[in-house]
What does this fold into?
Amino acid sequence: MAILFKTTPAAMTRWRPHLTAAFSGHEVRLWPDIGDPVAIDYALVWHPEPGLLASLPNLRLIVSLGAGVDHILRDPLLPPSVPILRLLDPYMTDAMSEYVILNVLRLHRQDIDYRAQQAAAEWRERDQKNAAERTVGILGFGTLGRDAARKLKMIGFEVAGWSRTARDVPGFRTYVGDAGRDALLARSEILVSLLPMTAATENILDAALFARLPRGAGLVNAGRGRQLVEADLLAALDSGQLSAAVLDVFRDEPLPPEHPFWCHPRIVVTPHVAAETHPPTALPIIAAAIRDFEAGRPVANMVDAKRGY
It folds into this structure.
């Protein structure tokens, strides 16, 4: 029995020192040195090439090395009978909340404007709301969204959440469905998107959605790049419908150097670092899931391929 491990070359440096200890008793094969594909039972992957997973005839379980699984599901040759596990690591949840809090505060405290004033040597106070006077709306009220909401609420923000299925989250106003999304947008001065990538969420951050926000709202997108219609964002910023945007995910990654987001004065770009997978905490979770799978015990966070998460 063997485990195939496939990630990006840059990330492999972080993972390699921890793999042997995590999977003692299993042979770990580092892509592209997969050896005899017949012997591979488990594939731990990030952005596998189309057809790679289908080439493993005895594959029993696919493990995503991140919370998202769209990088796996978009493979047209994906073997439909092999279950998929998405990684849910408390470390990643905390890291995502850090990112959300940092950038909600960046927008709330007008950091982009003050940085521009500093560059111009301009000393000018700006009117400032209290956190309690500012509503933050979160699209995607799963594990990541709820954790970020709780921490934002501790700072003082009014926080509400939207999800595709109804969720009762004590202490928060929650919305569901198309009508609920419109109601959330209407009161969200800062909108945070943590949505998974599905057919229903592709291009969801578009001109129609931006028009439903209060004028001058801010956007934080740490979901997926293909959810954002880039031209619509630029138009909304140029018209003043949106005041600023913080973007961690993009349609093309790395973001091309000629892309207009890099030099736009109302956009903050980060290189998909909101919640990077942390090998020392992630690998014990993955190893425990494989043990449960082998023993026939229930495994948490298995993916519903029809829903896309």
Q: What stands out?
A: The longest strand covers residues 40-45. The chain has two domains: 2-89+277-295, 90-269. The first helix runs from residue 9 to 22. The mean pLDDT is 96.
